[in-house]
Amino acid sequence: MPPKVLLRGLLLLVPVIAALPCAAGENHELPQVKNLILLIGDGMGPQQMGLLTAYAHQAPHTIYADQETALEQAMDQGEIGLVRTAPPGVLVTDSAAAATQLASGVAAGAEMVGVDAAGDPVETILEKAQAAGKAVGLVTDTRLTHGTPAAFAAHRAHRSEENAIATDLVASGIDVLLGGGLRHWIPEQAGKEGSAAHDEIQHLTGGAYAFSSKRKDNRNLLLEARLDGYRLVFNREELSKVNSGKVLGLFGNESMSDALTKRSAGAMTAEPTLAEMTRRALQLLSQREAGFFLMVEAGQIDWACHNNDTGSLLAEMLQMDQSLKAILEWMQGREDTLLVVTADHETGGFGFSYSGSHLPRPTRLKGNAFADKLHQPDFNFGRPGTLDRLYDQKESYFTIFRTFDALSKDQQTPARLAELVNAALPFPITEAQAAAILRRGPNRLYVKDHRYLGSKEVPQIMDYADFYVFGDNLRMNLLARAVAADQNVVWATGTHTSTPVIAIAVGPEEARKAFGRMMHATDLGKQMQATLLGR
Questions:
Q1: Where are the domains of the chain?
Q2: What band does 18 get if pLDDT is binned at 50, 70 and 90?
Q3: Catalytic residue at 95?
Q4: What is the CATH code for 396-489?
Q5: DSSP assignment string, 348-360
């Protein structure tokens, strides 16, 4: 069987939680290309890719019909490798360290941004490309100050320093900045209605969306960016009118909307899609004669997986695939561009699994082996129609619980939660299941003043509780348990795993061929630098 076919088949397997052994790869000098595009699916392991391809080819009402996904097209055209993701001294990475290793080719420490394992700032591929006269851009559907985009342009001891990261981005001179996170760019006083600062931000944004501030000073980074030549945009219409120059687009106060919310809003949404942001970034950056570097992050794949939300994960993977399709269309006929599609890590340990519930009924088959007997599988191996039902999910788990938490306290009942879940999911739960989801108890992981473990009571996960660490978000993980049997879905954790991720390199053969191997994330970072910059 050809290697590509074999690897694509492996995408349908359940998670491989343990990293595969491999000797460290060497950095190879590669022929240069003019442009390099890096598409990162945050949290996108082989199994998340497998969900996308399973839906595309097995769902009875797939939107792909008889077509391949853009992901498969990229695999057909390129080289495929595997990437180990762990930073030094630990087994599992977070997004900030993982992105720093991809951005710099240097080993990073846990939760550090643009800093090596010793704590020293490291120059990234974006900064090196910028110094070489190339245009550079960052696109994300999370916050521009979030761990992954920040690692390419900021240098901070911890990923939580998002206000400082925003100041780094303003000072960076990056040509295209598109994502969410306005709250880290506007003065502290802007969050107070009636204040002059609030009125100023309201005027600047045109009332695109409600806003608040996370800053602890009165710096208005929007004005600083505008003084530095940036065009400021806050909705898809404004973005569509930008045809040249530097642009800062902030399309949400926190993150951008998740893929299910965007799908529900359709053409009415004021936010651009990830694909629309990607197309605009390519149009702007490609005007530079010297070429460009662009990082695009499909960041909410990770969030869906942290929440163990399979329907939302599918929607995020479909959004990523549309962005990849836009890139491949732009690359058609070009021989000066390398595209690398990869992930920073895998999240959640996702997989379809066969079970002993909902057993299939005996069926009559036409084959000779069943002339005198019925076909009676011992287990429920999962029905393709489940993929359509996953696609039909209307709201993410996050949106369901945000709606629930906005209710008055007397309305926050198991019956009301079951009602909300059953209106949004084709996988209904009972009031008793809703009660179990809402049950709280002592947090045995409690650490006083900890960012995530500081609550004395949390929703009660009874197994592998050490790997579910995000406070009230555990309700989403419990909802995943409640619908698991109906979905034939298992999740291993609420955090990240060490599963090696896939890297796909598309472009000129001489530039892409060295990516088809097992490597560490730092090796991948070095390969990209060598390919774009010759060093």
A1: 3-185+220-350+496-533, 396-489
A2: very low
A3: yes
A4: 1.10.1200.140
A5: TT-EE--BSSSPP
